[in-house]
Amino acid sequence: MSSTSQIGGGLTNIVSTSQLKSRLVIWSPDGLWWVEEKLAGDQVDHVAVMSNMLPGLHSLVRVVVGEPTAARMLEKHAHEILYAVYWWAIPTAKFFLGMLIIDTWQYFLHRAMHTNIYLYKKFHSVHHRLYVPYAFGALYNHPLEGFLLDTVGAGIAEFVAGMTTREATLLFVVSTFKTVDDHCGYNLPLDPLQMFSGNNADYHDIHHQVIGIKSNFSQPFFIHWDVILGTRMTRKDIELRRQKGKQRSE
Ligand SMILES: [Zn+2]
Ligand SMILES: [Zn+2]
């Protein structure tokens, strides 16, 4: 059996055939539209775009380091600076912005799915059949929820951050890996996806338990919305609640 059909077989075990079909109906046109949408790779005249950026870069360097230093720097290193800004600084900033947009979209929509009884019963309760998450369970949800929460959120991030097809592809791949990893049930010490923020498998496991179902809405990258809006729950909070409960019953 090929690995593709193994994955397909695994998916049909955890997602019903009708759910899988409805996902394909949504994903296929969406994917085709997205691939055809804009120019990418060699189709883009990078030299022309970089040339257009040069005056702006000159002004920026002058503001940051002052006129005399800027003149010296730009005389010797204008092309290196432009290259680094175009190929590294701007894509990194766009990637980070895309992460923040996805997090913001998912936090408020996810929270609404828990505060609105109709949305919870009709859509989000499907995902919460999992009290103990597992990797494939990351995408075990109502097809419409998957479309709204994941596809639309990622599309908005791509649009607002002005990403190229390659940049958006990287963001989509990393966010998919991250959400699968957050449901894998393992907090492995050298897992890079779980090291860069407090939003990891353990954090999301709490949300899947009864005690934490009204907490830890943040997904998939950071936890700032939970911290700012007071919906964060840690293992320490759970322990403190248990101790208080014990004290009250004694
Ligand atoms: Zn939830
Ligand atoms: Zn989940």
TrEMBL record:
- Keyword Ubl conjugation present in the record's keywords: the answer is no
State if Transmembrane helix is listed as a keyword: yes
- Which Pfam families does the protein's record reference? FA_hydroxylase
Provide the primary localization.
membrane
InterPro entries tied to this protein: Fatty_acid_hydroxylase, Sterol_Desaturase_Related
Which keywords, in A-to-Z order, does the entry hold? Membrane, Transmembrane, Transmembrane helix
Record domain Fatty acid hydroxylase: where: 95-231
Q: Which domain of life is it from?
A: Eukaryota
Give the UniProt subcellular location, in the record's own words.
Answer: Membrane
Q: Which PANTHER family match?
A: STEROL DESATURASE
Name the record gives this protein: Fatty acid hydroxylase domain-containing protein
Organism annotation? Somion occarium
